[in-house]
């Protein structure tokens, strides 16, 4: 089959000589039988990189990517894999047990501010997000999905078990596979978000354990939770997908990418001084590369250097890459070379700001909010901005609204520049109470340099008292909308993949030269629902049953009794006397 | 009597048209007392929009109407259904009065009434304006006006039931069966009106209500066949219209299992919002049986008086159904002028009218306080719901008491004396 994407194809025989697989036997797989099949064995590969991008507001954005390639023929049925070297066994077992073809899970704390920080390398919505493509051999996708979420919840110490059919959707167009294969049957796709999920050290620790070197060597030593969570934005993700081993795609491999994006704030973490160093950001410096890694690099975005900031220590290596439609220049620090660490044998990058600069406005940006007052109805407004001066492009908007906000699709309006803008494709699946949420996907053409507003009205439902969370007046979260688009690029993108392409530019497959793929997540919404009084179940049951009983009683009386003249009854003394008289056989009193 | 009725219709249409054009129409169509998830117009529009998008209207949980109505709505004249109901009620009460007067005349001639209860007898003069009053009570009732301005499909249901009553009273079993099937098809509860209609026809055809007689079973089976047959035909037609049986769980399953807990004027919503999950099925069954349960006992007690039985059944349906609205209440309230001769035996009428008036005024106030102002909570609205239903139950049982008492007096005399000759009081024993 044709392979539109060709990923990094490193010469493996060359790399194998440098890897130290004989020494580090961390995984509980058996030792690879290198003597028997030298060509087939030990083709796992690990690369790590860190990209540091200074932002114009004085904040700094650090993006870690750890990529493990696992060469195994996963498409063969019934082949039990017990060979784990660099690829974590827990994830490998998950993949084979649930017949997963692609898995993307992210945990995010904070909201990515596109207007201030630009586009992230790997976008993610606040909270937890999980989307999975299953193999088309799976017969019970829902059963697999349920078990998968529970297993992942155990692996990542997150409460993913809250994902069930009431917040899972099957998007028809928005989440196409990022790896090999051209699946179009979205019955095998499942997507769910938990906007309420909180990320903390408990989630970071198992995430770090999945890395081949753990947090003991390489770039992962920088991942210290007390600094990472003291940031404006923190997102850790795991992306697993099938890729080609080489350009000709003769064999396939699993790719596991673990990404961690963090934005450190100028004022909370940076103490107001526009000066960042690795030590200031992570309270550690780099001392060595991960011995298992075939490449370990740090990229610093110096496109704005020297006007904006200065970088030390200097490095002779430079790299240029076209990423997110822009040509950027990077200084490269190759950690596999000893001279990178200098005399102190530790690398502490220092960036010192010299001035303020103008940021390029991102071309696509979206916001969302709830309008209306009271607890009966409301309106969801999604605003999408197209900041391109002269090009219009279509975007795919996907909204997944929980069932207790009943959407009225006949109130859907899409306006651009105060004129009606009818979407060319609408896929709407209405919610079923307590079974599935609403799914609305629309293809909207955005005119150039405009603001498009999508509004839809909803009604708030009253739930059963057991369906509220323990803090019902906090409100209910509605997951972020997803805006996916192919944005026209200012610079021609490279559709061919070379060997030394950095990881951050090869995450999303580039299929055409003139545009790049962007996914923007909006804010999650917090909506209040009317609540019953939680202290009153017994009272309500008693009172309602009383009213029904009053009805029953009155009808019963009128149906079973007849009218009679009311004869007064004898007083008690006379009745007792009558009783005695009856016994004696004497005539009764009246 | 055509002229006053026409004038009444014109006035009613004018009021509705004025309200319809004003800004109040939007407000009224959102009120939970007036529209329920079963009959809101907004949901009909939503169902049509879903059909346009190529999605079945029953795939979501927003549309709960039956599909024949879907077509009908496109041509439904909203203001017209009220007029149809009023005219139908007018004609049926006219027919009923004629029947009553004729029966009374025969009973008088055969000396069936005791001497002192002549003042209880009804004269044509007093009965002359009753049909007009019934039409007026329906058309000018604020509940009806609100329901009409909100374009609730309750008006359509009321029209079908009123036409059913007219056909029954006119003696056409076929039409009556078909219309009852249509009413049952739209919302299941009019099923209980089968018994009073059957009793009326048996009475009209002079067939004694005796379970051992073959003539009874013969007619009953005929009528049941007409009814069940039309129901099956109508259901089959809607299957062919939408191509699937989706509408059965979506409409009838919805009515019976009460999944939607939107507040309304009924007793179900808060009860099932606060119900322990373990007992939910049990109480759903209890509450639904409660609606159908009074049919047999009432039919046994009121087998000589089928029209009053119809009134009682409609009232019980309106009070105890799963999603009541004020439009349902307005239908049985329209009958009250027909029982105006019972006024002297009503015990609680003042209390009941005060309760109902006060509750009607308090509903919007407490809703606003709960949903918009946030200073009250759901208990306030629930309390008014309880009181409103209690007032309705009291009203219905009061009229039942008065009816039974008048019947008792007509057989035993008006001024009753005890054994010692003093004035007696009547009690239920």
UniProtKB/TrEMBL annotation, chain A:
GO terms for biological process: attachment of GPI anchor to protein. InterPro entries: PIG-T. Residues 12-31 have a biased composition (Basic and acidic residues). Pfam families: Gpi16. GO terms for cellular component: GPI-anchor transamidase complex. Residues 1-33 are annotated as: Disordered. This is Phosphatidylinositol glycan anchor biosynthesis, class T. It comes from Cyprinus carpio carpio. The lineage of its organism: Eukaryota, Metazoa, Chordata, Craniata, Vertebrata.
Automatic annotation (TrEMBL), chain B:
The chain crosses the membrane at residues 128-149, 161-182, 188-207, 219-245, 251-272, 279-296, 308-336, 348-373, 379-401. One of its GO terms (cellular component) is GPI-anchor transamidase complex. It is found in: Endoplasmic reticulum membrane. Keywords: Endoplasmic reticulum, GPI-anchor biosynthesis, Membrane, Signal, Transmembrane, Transmembrane helix. The keyword Coiled coil does not apply. Pathway: Glycolipid biosynthesis; glycosylphosphatidylinositol-anchor biosynthesis. Coiled coil: none annotated. It comes from Cyprinus carpio carpio. It is a multi-pass membrane protein. This is Phosphatidylinositol glycan anchor biosynthesis, class U.
